[in-house]
Amino acid sequence: MSLSQLYLYAIVVLLVYATLWFILALLLKRNDIADVAWGLGFIVMVIVGLVFCGLNPTALALSALVIIWGVRLSTHIALRMQETQEDFRYAQWRKEWGKSFYWRTYVQVFLLQGIILLIVAAPVFIAFANGKELHSEVSIIGIVIWLIGFVVQSIADAQLAKFKKQKRPGEIMDKGLWKYSRHPNYFGEIVMWWGLFLVVLPLQYGWVGVISPLTITYLLNYVSGVPMLEKRFDKNENYQRYKAQTSRLIPLMKKKVYE
């Protein structure tokens, strides 16, 4: 099956997927359920590839990595949601959107997430449509890079979760990996997708997969990740001191060079 045909099937499946999660969000009255849907959505894309293309060595390796990441991330977010109210970003949109809340939720949260997911999942589709034996050194390096990113994100999430259970009012997380980066979990995420791109790079049209890590890097660094979270702490003096002496994203890199 061609890459374009696989994308067409994926679009149909994602439209249904996004609609079902939108309905669930209305029932739960929590739009941040979209964060759980994010990781699981990639697993659905793996299933689409498996159904319409079958497995090959590259697709098998990449699918395993995506499933491990998707299950861990969505489980982590779901457990966190049980102990908190709706994420402040979604709660703010709920207030701002007013009477247009329902259609904007469907379009700007769930459908938009589906579109982004299709773009970021490019390595998945390339692996299923054009996969072959996994013997390229570049692919092996990609898997190693993915593992590094996965470990960093997992440790960072665990450290932050532990901190939130024990923190005092106004206290800032600046220990562990968070001592070297203000957003080590995002850094790990970005590293993982660059790794997955390298896994499929030796394949036909593998170079197209670069759109995946480029999109994730841009979104987390400049749109929905770092900027939205840090805006919340604009008036927090402790965070501003932490911000002044800690790298924005890449651990150990000097802030004056990076920003």
Q: Care to describe what's here?
A:
The chain is an all-alpha fold and 259 residues long. The chain contains twelve helices and no strands. Helix 1 (3-28) packs antiparallel against helix 2 and helix 3 (57-81) packs antiparallel against helix 6 (122-130).
Short description:
By secondary structure, the chain is an all-alpha fold. Helix content is about 75%, strand content about 0%.
Low-confidence segments: none
Question: How many angstroms separate the termini?
Answer: 44 Å
Number of domains: 1
Shape: globular
Count of DSSP H/I helices: 12
Determine the fraction of residues in helical runs and give it as a percent range: over 70%
**Radius of gyration over alpha carbons?**
19 Å
Largest sheet: none
Strand fraction equals under 5%
Q: List SSEs in N-to-C order.
A: HHHHHHHHHHHH
In terms of structural class, how would the helical and strand content be classed? mainly alpha
Find the count of extended strands (DSSP E, 2+ residues): 0
Report the mean per-residue pLDDT as an integer.
91
